[in-house]
């Protein structure tokens, strides 16, 4: 859940910002509008509001619901694999912090709650940071085998594999903790195990339960291990389906299971798949905390759940090199995909980047790198391909700190002229100055 800071590159002495703008120091910050409009409704803002207009515009795009979009195709393939599961994909991204964090046992001081990591509309409403935010309501609605796909939002760095909006699919299966439920578990485990035995798949497994990945005190260790085993088989079978038919067919699919920690599951795992020479983390999962089922009024039951990243899967399966492409409205991108089919993306010409540096003295109150990234994104949108902190320096006498960021401007659709890049950079500089009252250096 901890979002990364803006990517740090080894600090080097570099030329100062190649921009010349007035050094006017603005002390007052831009006033905050009293409401923000999201999905056609107005919401009151307050002192924690940090949603930006470039993020607000992403709400309702619903890429995961477009049948000929790579994210929609992946969703369809997974839903087809899990037969008998209810598929949900139309839940609003606006949730209470209680849903996103408290219901799932996140401690008060968890970094995911910070304003620097999550988007808040106001103190009572935020953009979900993961699809687990809907576990309690879905269990409470009586669903016992379900998949829920949605857009999720995290304040994060800007680069080819990080974007502040991405998509997850949550999956869960509940078993009655009685003879019938355990029989169902045993039968399905046997079916999956025999399927996987015959398949060309290499699995690095770990014990279902260990001292560092414990059974919950409410659970019988044997039952918990059976549920964890069924979870592993269910996901190995999905991975075989998704990755088995692509690439060099003689190579086995390689999967490794790793111990993990989530506040709402125990034992917990992450899964990595070896694909095109790299290990790729695709999901987190585990045995659902009994407190979640209790809160959802699901008695005498035990459940597993997983949350997987749809972009991560799609980037690998479709060979899509840049996460921003998922948001492209360019026909050269969209026309390459058709419902139900995994095809290899053919890159169209990539226009040259234009990099510009911006350095400034931080205000006395400091400035989080994610705040800077957000202003860049809000000013120039996807034209900012990467933002890197390339230098920082604290003056030995005044103790003031200066930071230098390098912004790579690149359009997916055209070549940017030097003048256009300069104009974008000027806009960024004046927005940063206006918003944070920083003093721009040159
Ligand atoms: C979670 O979000 C948990 N809610 C998952 C979970 C669900 C655990 C149910 C247990 C039970 P995590 O932050 O690791 O965990 O994200 C899950 C997956 O989302 C990752 O494995 C990855 O595939 C994807 N993901 C996470 N961050 C990003 C990102 N910045 N860009 C693209 N995909 C991401
Ligand atoms: Mg993770």
From TrEMBL:
It comes from Ceriporiopsis subvermispora (strain B). CDD domains: PheRS_alpha_core (cd00496). Is responsible for the charging of tRNA(Phe) with phenylalanine in mitochondrial translation. One of its GO terms (biological process) is phenylalanyl-tRNA aminoacylation. It holds the Pfam family tRNA-synt_2d. NCBIfam families: pheS_mito. It catalyses: tRNA(Phe) + L-phenylalanine + ATP = L-phenylalanyl-tRNA(Phe) + AMP + diphosphate + H(+). The keyword Ligase applies. Residues 74-339 form the Aminoacyl-transfer RNA synthetases class-II family profile domain. Its main location: mitochondrion. One of its GO terms (molecular function) is ATP binding. GO terms for cellular component: mitochondrial matrix. Transmembrane segments: none annotated. It comes from the Eukaryota. Belongs to the class-II aminoacyl-tRNA synthetase family. Gene3D superfamilies: Bira Bifunctional Protein, Domain 2 (3.30.930.10), Ferrodoxin-fold anticodon-binding domain (3.30.70.380). Keywords: Aminoacyl-tRNA synthetase, ATP-binding, Ligase, Mitochondrion, Nucleotide-binding, Protein biosynthesis, Transit peptide. PROSITE patterns: AA_TRNA_LIGASE_II, FDX_ACB. This is Phenylalanine--tRNA ligase, mitochondrial. Coiled coil: none annotated. Its EC number is 6.1.1.20. Residues 349-441 form the FDX-ACB domain. It is found in: Mitochondrion matrix.
